[in-house]
Amino acid sequence: MRRRRLLALVPASALLLGGCGLLPDNGTASGEHTVTVWLMKGSATQEYLDRFTADFTDTHPGIDLDVRVQEWTGVGEKVQNALKGEGGGPDVIEVGNTQVPAYAEGGGLLDLTLESMRDWGKDDWLPGLAEPGQWQSQQYGIPWYAANRVVIYRKDLFQRAGISEPPRTRDEWLEITERLGADGDQGIYLAGQDWYTLAGFIWEEGGDLARQRGGGSWEGTLDSAAALRGMDFYRRLQALGDGPAAADEEHPPQAGVFAEGGVAQIVAVPGLAATIVQENPHLKGKLGFFPVPGKKAGTPGAVFTGGSDLVVAKNTDDRDAAVAVVEALTGAEWNTELARAMNCVPNKESLAKAVTGEEGVAAMAAGAARGRATPTTARWGAVEADNPIKDYMTAVLTGADPATEARRASSRITALLDPDTR
């Protein structure tokens, strides 16, 4: 999930959402209780927050809101310091969905398992937001909004190739992508190190990037049979275009490659379409969207979900008031309002109807039901920093033996997640 439009992952929500201004960084008027809320730049419009604040303070007499905008860059250290304080800091904090374990491990977050199960419909949350919000089976992060990749395609190139509708399965996807490339175009542009897309293919096969062993330690699992099948599908799809084997989707930015013409498809968040049209206005009205296809017709493929969760600082001065803010922001009314305002995916599949009017977001919402997130370990950030997954992908795409390279990458992931194995 880069406030470049949600394409990287640190944090996941910064990678996947192009904005899905807040209130000035100052206090509010007097009140019996003041809840300080840290929200990230670009997560909501000023108009949305003005309306939410007015409604909340009207329905919760005696509670004032002090909403402060934070930049994604460098926010991790700032949040950690706030959670270690003795109060007086933020009560409610927006964090990237995959960041929750790192904050929970230090003991700085309030356990919201009871409220999640009893009051907030935990079982209906999107798994890609709910699962990474857990730590040691307890719920600390409450899903707020999500975004995930879809396929952005050229309607005119599909029509020219005689393709009247998007593919329903992965096999059909391979078939039409090959047809799309028959006239000299790239059937798809897929960079060799787009590991978020690879993760979805691995999950679709029933595999994973890593798994937890007995005793709580973790090990890399790119060498499992299922994960190898996911990599093989990636290899076959990537070969139908000219994406660089040794670079990710941002080097060069795939929006620019697509805008130059001659590319029929890319895998990206739908918000990237606006960048494409900005770079090439002639493509206005020619772009379409469909969910990443799955193995079975009628069922979208698994995808990486980025987005944000809300957490409550354990050192909050007013637990009940802070919890009330989280409940309101993540509840059906204001969650669907956010989805409409920001073209995000709501936190529950049942709320997806709120965004059905926009083609790209509707495709994203359909895929979100099969969304997943990276392994829920506080050390996953170390894996992304070193990223043996990218090296593994490049090696396979340039002819190395997949099983050998997968074992090598899995061993590196294990060492990063469980330093005692070194």
Features:
13 strands, alpha/beta, single chain, 15% strand, 422 residues, 3-stranded antiparallel β-sheet, 18 helices
Explained architecture:
- The chain has 422 residues and is of the alpha/beta class.
- Helices cover 39% and strands 15% of the residues.
- The chain contains 18 helices and 13 strands.
- The protein has helices at 12-16, 46-59, 75-84, 100-105, 113-118, 127-130, 155-160, 170-180, 195-204, 225-238, 254-259, 272-279, 319-330, 332-342, 359-368, 380-386, 388-397, 402-417, and strands at residues 33-40, 63-70, 92-96, 134-135, 138-139, 142-148, 150-154, 210-212, 218-220, 265-268, 287-290, 303-312, 371-372.
- Strands 1, 2, 3, 6, 12 and 13 form a six-stranded mixed sheet that branches.
- Helix 9 packs across helix 10 and helix 17 (388-397) runs antiparallel to helix 18.
Per DSSP E runs of 2 or more residues, the count of β-strands stands at 13
Query: What does the largest sheet look like?
Result: 6 strands, mixed
Q: Which percent bin holds the helix content?
A: 25-40%
Question: Which structural class fits the helix and strand makeup?
Answer: alpha/beta
Ends distance: 30 Å
Please report which band the strand proportion falls in: under 5%, 5-15%, 15-25%, 25-35%, 35-45% or over 45%.
5-15%
Number of helices: 18
The oligomeric state is: single chain
Overall shape: it is globular
- The Cα radius of gyration reads 21 Å
SSE diagram, text form:
Blueprint: H1 12-16, E1 33-40, H2 46-59, E2 63-70, H3 75-84, E3 92-96, H4 100-105, H5 113-118, H6 127-130, E4 134-135, E5 138-139, E6 142-148, E7 150-154, H7 155-160, H8 170-180, H9 195-204, E8 210-212, E9 218-220, H10 225-238, H11 254-259, E10 265-268, H12 272-279, E11 287-290, E12 303-312, H13 319-330, H14 332-342, H15 359-368, E13 371-372, H16 380-386, H17 388-397, H18 402-417
Parallel strand pairs: 1-2, 1-3, 12-13
Antiparallel strand pairs: 3-12, 4-5, 6-12, 7-10, 7-11, 8-9
